Amino acid sequence: MSENKIPYKIYLGEEDIPQKWYNLRADMKNKPAPLLNPGTCQPMTAEELGAVFCDELVQQELDDTTPYIEIPKEIRDFYKMYRPSPIVRAYCLEEALGTPAKIYYKFEGNNTSGSHKLNSAIAQAYYAKKQGLKGVTTETGAGQWGTALSMACAYLGLDCKVFMVKVSYEQKPFRREVMRTYGADVTPSPSMTTEIGKKILAEHPGTTGSLGCAISEAVEVAVSNPGYRYVLGSVLNQVLLHQSVIGLEAKAALDKYNVKPDIIIGCAGGGSNLGGLIAPFMGEKLRGENDYRIIAVEPASCPSFTRGKFAYDFCDTGMICPLAKMYTLGSGFIPSANHAGGLRFHGMSSTLSQLYHDGYMEAKAVEQTDVFAAAEQFARVEGILPAPESSHAIRVAIDEALKCKETGEEKTILFGLTGTGYFDMVAYQKYNDGEMTDYIPTDEDLAKGLSSLPVVPGQD
Amino acid sequence: MSENKIPYKIYLGEEDIPQKWYNLRADMKNKPAPLLNPGTCQPMTAEELGAVFCDELVQQELDDTTPYIEIPKEIRDFYKMYRPSPIVRAYCLEEALGTPAKIYYKFEGNNTSGSHKLNSAIAQAYYAKKQGLKGVTTETGAGQWGTALSMACAYLGLDCKVFMVKVSYEQKPFRREVMRTYGADVTPSPSMTTEIGKKILAEHPGTTGSLGCAISEAVEVAVSNPGYRYVLGSVLNQVLLHQSVIGLEAKAALDKYNVKPDIIIGCAGGGSNLGGLIAPFMGEKLRGENDYRIIAVEPASCPSFTRGKFAYDFCDTGMICPLAKMYTLGSGFIPSANHAGGLRFHGMSSTLSQLYHDGYMEAKAVEQTDVFAAAEQFARVEGILPAPESSHAIRVAIDEALKCKETGEEKTILFGLTGTGYFDMVAYQKYNDGEMTDYIPTDEDLAKGLSSLPVVPGQD
User: Fold this and answer.
1) Are residues B200 and B315 in the same domain?
2) Are residue B320 and residue B413 in the same domain, yes or no?
């Protein structure tokens, strides 16, 4: 390990927890397209959105002009439990790679939810509580978001109803039990407790569920039970807003040592982590103050950026949610069964989609055996067992560092280590046993998914 | 959450990682009794111990006079990955209990091994590497020690052979996979790969193994393979020495704010965490500089302190290890099958046993449903999902805080939160489902265990 004056971990103090979230949209010339009412194809009004989401979150969702939004004291107090999160100089990884590159990662797995999801969960639960609601509903796939929301609701004394994709409910009983330990009500989806669940089960009796289907059930329960609203862990503008604490802290820590990253890398499923990590850096880029190379990494088996279409689409399978303009594979697209971990949502944050469309960032798709090879290499030298999702970013960070080794360039790389892989050992076992496979969807697979795109006037 | 000037987390900087381990034995008037050769009943010599343990660790094991021992730079560099560990003021728990007590906990679960075990694992692996060895062998029950050692060996490029108690190997496949991900060779114990394993399997064909039996196998492999030594995660003096970083950091953090704990609480299985946490405080107590109430918490189902005998006993089932003088339930004692989690070793650190015998600390035994109730209460307000072992300390910390509520005393309580419970969700599920039971061994059970005590001259 080098004797560099930059410490292994750059810790910030409690006083360095951001006071305000940064709203990236305020600095975008081309704003993300508004959500549309699927019936009228008109922009969703605050009133319409208020039937599903908490009032203050609706304001945040629609606000694309205010650059900084105050973080309520109660949320900052909760953040103190696990924030500021560490930013680590990956000295050991650099040495193992023999690269002149300087690698940093912002580690968001240092809390029981095991990921960055808690940053938005506590915010959304707080506003629900403030509005006097009884509880919230949501869906969870890999389980990180559901765990985070359960924790936030336990802390605030809110009821929490989680629809967990049935295949995860069965294959990840431990994730389920963590949520139950925090007092959440966890239902496998599709279930017989909702109309949409009954309909889906009648049409597909043996289905093991999907994220899009669980969203539909959670929304139905929220709108049909007084005192409940629906909350979502990614994709939405409000979620990216809350997640900006990741980037703000990362930037503050690097600024302390006058470090400016050349390349910023994050995994991308719905975009919550990536949008949060890059927020202040992208803001500088949008304002022309600084330039950064920004790379979104997605699984080759669910390649919404690299092979999807930039179009209005449903966020859910039941097609009851608003339409969002995003890079999408179609709400009917489901990644191949060999795909492990999260990052399996068919669409991508409207904000990130617009930025990608406008050329402010790149995207790369990586195959999962390569991802797990990077995960294992990272774990052995850096100690932390990374989540499969985070390992997509590790893969590309290692690849970029190895390019530096060839060229001799001393580039500074920052990547987001969004979480830990303790609940993903089934996937690690497959990798350890040499049984993990890759799958790249064929053009035919993709065409089938995109055939479900809704018809929206003015869009081809 | 209170506006107290003491932050939620007291972070120390990298420069505050201890430079030296504190060797509690140097300040003890009554030294812990020496290890005995089971054949001769004479104190084990350095040469005899060197056949099993690394040379420098043998010196540490035998050294009961040097108060401070330098931590090699390479180990301190590794500590930088996850140390200093946070010390947390449990504001949320205090508020939930409505107690005037001030509760602090030292959290050692912020690393992938999920516990404090890494503190000694890296030290033991380092000395093995320094001696030019090829690898180390060990046993693991709950899996925390095996994980920690696998991580340390991966970092140093040492071979690591872990004998995992068969019932854990089968019931905790994810722990096993974490170790494999770090490159360890994991064998269910008893196995057909050792003479002692074959013997045990021949005598008890259906056995699911025990910690004492896995120790015997690991020792056999170490002594019969050139270039290998055996390492152990608890009980030994060297382990308590390495774990003193816990207490040294805790004391440094509290000293920063002039906080003096009245009560210090730790869970106790073999004593590694407790011995580390209390080290500098106990040192002050032994030297007459300060007084502290120190409480060891053990499971009612494995009550070595509260119901065991202070006597020489074997550390392993195969009876091939040296004899240690300790509070013991007999090497044949196995906790009831309903017992979840670790803290299931039949004996207790010789150092802690002597201190307990001499009246420097108290011990309490708690039942596991009470422990899990405390764990759940803690998780919901403090966020962290605690390990079942750590939750023994939480139970007593809460009980002491509730006593303060009755009396109005503003006592300061410090407890050790040794790890996280991510790999213990089977036990949590039992608790969540109301299926967890308690078992207190009968006097007959205990008499049966103690009947296996060896005959040692001069001891009744």
Assistant:
1) no
2) yes
- The rounded distance, in Å, linking the Cα atoms of A325 and A220 is 22
Closest CA to B389 of B346, B435, B437, B424: B424
The total number of structural domains in chain B stands at 2
Any A CB within 8 A of B43 CB: no
Per the domain annotation, does B237 fall within a domain?
no
pLDDT digits (tens, 9 = 90+) for A391-438: 999 999 999 999 999 999 999 999 999 999 999 999 999 999 999 999
CB contact under 8 A, B80 and A381: no
Cβ contact A168:A175 at 8 Å: yes
For the segment A185-201, the average pLDDT, to the nearest whole number, is 95
CA distance A87 to chain B (A): 11
C-beta of residue B423 within 8 angstroms of C-beta of residue B143:
yes
Q: Do B8 and A14 lie within an 8 Å CB cutoff?
A: yes
A177 to B376: CB separation less than 8 angstroms, yes or no: no
B31 within some domain = yes
Q: Which CATH number belongs to the domain containing residue A36 in this structure?
A: 3.40.50.1100
Q: Are residues B216 and B278 located together in one domain of the fold? A: no
Domain final residue pick, A174, A198, A230: A230
Q: What number of C-beta contacts closer than 8 Å exist between A and B?
A: 122
For residues A400-423, one letter each, b for 16 or more C-beta atoms within 10 angstroms of the residue's C-beta and e for the rest, the string is bbeebeeeeeebbbbbbbbbbbbb
Question: Does the pLDDT of residue B460 top 70, yes or no?
Answer: no
**A333-to-A314, B111, B247 alpha-carbon distances in Å:** 11, 37, 53
The residues near A187 (Cβ < 8 Å, ≥ 6 apart) are: A161, A162, A163, A164, A193, A217
- pTM (2 d.p.): 0.94
Tell me, yes or no, whether B24 and B125 share the same domain: yes
Do A126 and A144 belong together in one domain? yes
- Which residues in chain B are closer than 8 Å to A92, comparing Cβ atoms? 81, 155
Q: Are residues B191 and B299 in the same domain?
A: no
Indicate whether B177 and B131 sit together in one domain: yes
Do B335 and B302 touch, CB atoms closer than 8 A?
yes
Q: Is A305 on the interface with B (CB under 8 A)?
A: no
CB contact under 8 A, A110 and B110: yes
How many whole angstroms separate alpha carbon B385 and alpha carbon B377? 10
pLDDT of residue B2: 41
- pLDDT in the model for residue B156: 96
DSSP state of B386: B
Q: Which residues of B touch A429 (CB under 8 A)?
A: 173, 177, 180
Q: What is the ipTM of this complex?
A: 0.90
Any domain includes A272: yes
CA distance B214 to chain A (A): 23
Considering A164, A195, A230, which residue would you say is the last residue of a domain? A230
Asked if the Cβ–Cβ distance from B14 to A1 is below 8 Å, we say: no
pLDDT score of B341 more than 90:
no
Query: Burial letters for B367-376: b for 16+ Cβ neighbours within 10 Å, e otherwise?
Result: bbebbbbbbb
Full residue range of the structural domain in which residue B399 is found: 8-17+83-114+244-450
Residue A235 lies in a domain: no
> For the segment B177-229, what is each residue's pLDDT rounded down to a tens digit?
999 999 999 999 999 999 999 998 999 888 888 888 899 999 999 999 999 99
Same domain, B205 and B327: no
